[in-house]
Design brief:
Elements (H helix, E strand, L loop, with lengths): L13 H12 L9 E4 L26 H14 L4 E3 L14 H11 L6 E4 L9 H6 L5 E5 L5 H7 L5 H18 L5 E8 L7 H9 L4 E6 L25 H5 E4 L4 E3 L12 E2 L5 H17 L8 H4 L27 H6 L8
Parallel strand pairs: 1-2, 1-7, 3-4, 4-5, 5-6
Antiparallel strand pairs: 7-8, 8-9
Helix pairs in contact: 2-3
């Protein structure tokens, strides 16, 4: 178990380097993406200090419904257990207005997608019957990125969010899930560790565990270091490097259909194709030829330019607690050796 209190640099610890090498050894070529981030919206209502969305230049809008349908229909046919995140860069619950988000999730479920995971900042939980919609949805996990326990810490990091609005709503969601006896979705309170909040990790775990939520703790990342967001724990001047687990295991699709390098290529600086014009399977093949293969073969001169300056691969291995509900972990979690070690290989998002 990583001690986050001292915020060590990832590559200065030999144990951590061995962990990263073990993660890399488990990377394989998948015939279809095992995890997909599909940006149903690039709109967000916060300007969090550790997120590059605040600097986003590309258009902020929702994905057109026919494109979402096309993607999930293929996933349902080809790989029903592929883990789908219906958004990642934007705030998903913005689409709860007029039930559009929930209609999209229900449609994905109907066409065969059985592993849906939604992330949110929680600011809209008190609107549009969001709590009821979440608990009645086909979601396996609902992840709330909170990143702070005290009002001061939470509002410093989650800029524009109000503690008095978000925390009571999340507590209500947890209590209502327990009252209804729901198995799914599991409620996960996520915590990205940075200097502003490292002192609250243990209290945060205790607080949300007592309310029936699971807690996921992960190091802060830099969103490819192409914007201004930086982490004190990521090193950029070290020859040590592994093939990127995000690039190997995840396909990310922006709202306009662009397939990009990975889940943290927020601006879309590398685009091998667009799923408006080609299938998901073909886009995955192109990503393999232009990104994954060079990474796994350590041909660092041949990887995309955005990868060359990125250190986010160093944060691989988020900390989960013991699995309380079966089937609510990423595909790589189900590895006996990894589970015993307490590190979930390449669980990046």
């Amino acid at each position: 178990m990583v001690d986050f209190s001292s915020l060590p640099k990832h590559l200065e610890d030999e144990t951590r380097r061995r962990e990263l090498l073990e993660i890399e050894q488990k990377l394989i070529e998948h015939p279809f993406p095992p995890q997909m981030v599909i940006e149903n919206t690039s709109i967000c209502n916060l300007t969090c200090i550790h997120c590059s969305h605040r600097e986003l230049i590309r258009k902020k809008r929702h994905m057109e419904r026919p494109l979402w349908n096309k993607i999930v229909e293929e996933v349902g046919r080809e790989s029903p257990q592929t883990e789908i995140w219906p958004t990642f860069y934007g705030e998903a619950l913005i689409m709860g207005y007029k039930n559009e988000l929930w209609d999209r999730l229900d449609y994905a479920d109907r066409v065969g997608c059985k592993n849906l995971v939604l992330n949110s900042n929680g600011t809209l939980l008190d609107r549009w019957d969001s709590i009821d919609q979440i608990l009645n949805s086909p979601l396996k996990r609902f992840i709330l990125s909170l990143d702070g326990l005290s009002k001061e810490t939470f509002e410093t990091i989650r800029e524009k969010a109000k503690w008095e609005q978000v925390y009571p709503a999340v507590e209500k969601l947890c209590a209502e899930r327990i009252r209804r006896g729901k198995k799914y979705p599991v409620i996960v309170a996520q915590f990205s560790v940075m200097p502003q909040n490292a002192h609250e990790v243990d209290d945060y775990r205790k607080f949300w565990n007592e309310r029936g939520a699971e807690v996921k703790v992960r190091p802060m990342l830099e969103w490819t270091a192409t914007g201004t967001v930086r982490s004190d724990t990521i090193v950029h001047d070290n020859e040590f490097r592994i093939a990127c687990p995000w690039g190997n295991n995840t396909m990310a699709i922006h709202q306009d259909g662009s397939v990009v390098a990975c889940a943290v290529d927020y601006e879309g600086r590398f685009k091998p194709g667009n799923v408006r014009d080609i299938t998901v399977k073909e886009a995955w093949r192109l990503l393999g030829e232009q990104l994954r293969k060079a990474h796994r073969e350590h041909r660092w001169k041949d990887i995309p330019d955005i990868c060359k300056g990125c250190g986010d691969w160093q944060v691989a291995g988020a900390q989960y607690e013991d699995e309380n509900v079966e089937g609510t972990r990423p595909f790589w979690y189900y590895d006996d050796e990894t589970k015993e070690a307490g590190v979930q290989a390449a669980d990046l998002i």
